[in-house]
């Protein structure tokens, strides 16, 4: 199982959005991915993020590469993950 793949739910561990969850929408290269919350759910807008700033979780959403925010939102609703995505995680870095 690849840690970072399209549809993988992750938690941001660095920056002002640390603790918020997002979904990987596209893999740009070996260091960067495109993620979205979507903003209406978790507060993370679609943006390029360094893989080192993400912690992959065990949840996976069935989306295609480059899916729109509306498609991601629909799949989150189908998977009953909306409340899970809204909850913030406490990040403790050692």
Q: What does this protein look like?
A:
It is a single chain. With about 90 residues, the chain is an alpha+beta fold. The model has no long low-confidence stretch (mean pLDDT about 90). The longest helix has 10 residues. The protein is globular, with a radius of gyration of 12 Å. A 5-stranded antiparallel β-sheet has the order 4-3-2-1-5, with no helix packed on it. It has 3 helices and 5 strands; from the N terminus they run βββαββαα. A hairpin with an 8-residue loop joins strand 1 and strand 2.
**Number of H- or I-type helical stretches:** 3
Give helix % range.
Answer: 10-25%
Overall shape: it is globular
Residue stretches low in confidence (pLDDT < 50, at least 5 long) are: none
Q: Measured on Cα atoms, how large is the radius of gyration?
A: 12 Å
- Strand arrangement within the widest β-sheet reads 4-3-2-1-5
Total count of strands: 5
Proportion in β-strands: 25-35%
- Written as H for each helix and E for each strand, in order along the chain, the element string is EEEHEEHH
The helix-and-strand class reads alpha+beta
| Mean pLDDT score | 92
| Oligomer state of the chains in this structure | single chain
Query: For the report, how would you describe the main beta sheet?
Result: 5 strands, antiparallel
Give the terminus-to-terminus CA distance.
Answer: 26 Å
